[in-house]
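User: Round two. Same drill as before: sequence, then structure, for each protein.

Assistant: Same drill it is. First protein:
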Amino acid sequence: MNTITPNQRREQLAAVADVVAAAYGEPPKSMHPLASSMSLRNAAALIGQRLLHENENPQHAFARGLASGDFGALLAQGAAPATVATFDRAAEHRAFCSIVPVHSFRPEPIRALEGDTGPLEPLQELQRISATVLQPNAAGPDSVALCTYGRVVAVSRQLVINGDLSFALSSLKNVAATAARQEAAMLAKTMEASANLSDGQPMFDAKFMNVHAAALDASALGAAIALLRTQPTASGQPAGLSARYLVVAPGLEFAARSLVHESGMQIDVLALAGLPGGRWYLLTAPDVCPVIGLLQLNGSRSPVRVEQLGYMFEADALPIRITADLGCTWLRRAGVVRGGV
């Protein structure tokens, strides 16, 4: 009988993560040498061997490993990259939004700095430069909060025995795509809400030069482009912003793409389900002038999380929870023009 040395045991355990990835259908480019010859069931049993009590039947190793937190963590971690990537691909709307970090799930005031001062002063040698003290008192949303949405996908014992988790990964990807659609719907609702900013004034009004009540055509697009250039900053200067994104209701997508193509301008067209028929928005680049923000918990890289849960003994399944922390808000009036009648 061959005895497994401690070093061999460590190498086997090091291969488990690659075994899980391969079972999901997402094997790493550089597989561990032992992973190709190890089944998913054997991987669970390998983890369970460390959890067996003294004199416990070795045949219980698979059951121990299957219900362990270590194996559950590996399943969640193995599914996370592909699941998050699906959310990113489905969330096309994030291209024209800015990420706004928040510290908690409680309502927080978010006030956008205007990011503009008066013209630069001509300087003489040894002349002291006057300072502009930044204050967070520009018009912005009064209070916004993240909301968490989630769903659980349970991996049955039989799927682990079969060694094929592709169906489970497909289910998690579908949940991630659904989360992206929910965020898009929330974004459309926020964009259409007639809310006031913290100064008590409406988000859109002709006096702010961010409304053009006309159907989308070449003339309307040209007028909106001019409005972005001439919208006043806090110091009264023309903003000089260039058009970067044309966001339209689904029924306008083909016409909008044709219009932009014919114009030859570098404007990306995005259709947003949830916008009413005939509605369109022209926005500048979010890194130049943040206009609408998506909330994200401070320190997190994605709003989507894939997490393990305790084993469901009543269903004989290992649950994986996918959650999405979603929230959005307008940040400022400059940098956007709302069109449509």
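Second protein:
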Amino acid sequence: MNKYRIRFNKTRGLPNRGSKDHCWRIFENDKEYLFKHFEINVPSKSEKEQNSEDWNVICFGIMTIVKDTSTAIINES
């Protein structure tokens, strides 16, 4: 299982930061993805980012990417 951190994309619409609709940054372990939507089907909780004022929603699971809707779906398996 992978650890996912989900955070609002404060720089959306800027170069290399997705369109204005790409509101979500999802980190799979240490790799970042930008999405318009996400769905979490596993237990989740909040967690403060170390050395930052940012907060994340975190969960553990396996991510499926639906490219045509720019949606991340996180399931147990």
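The CA atoms of residues 17 and 42 lie 27 Å apart.

User: Perfect.
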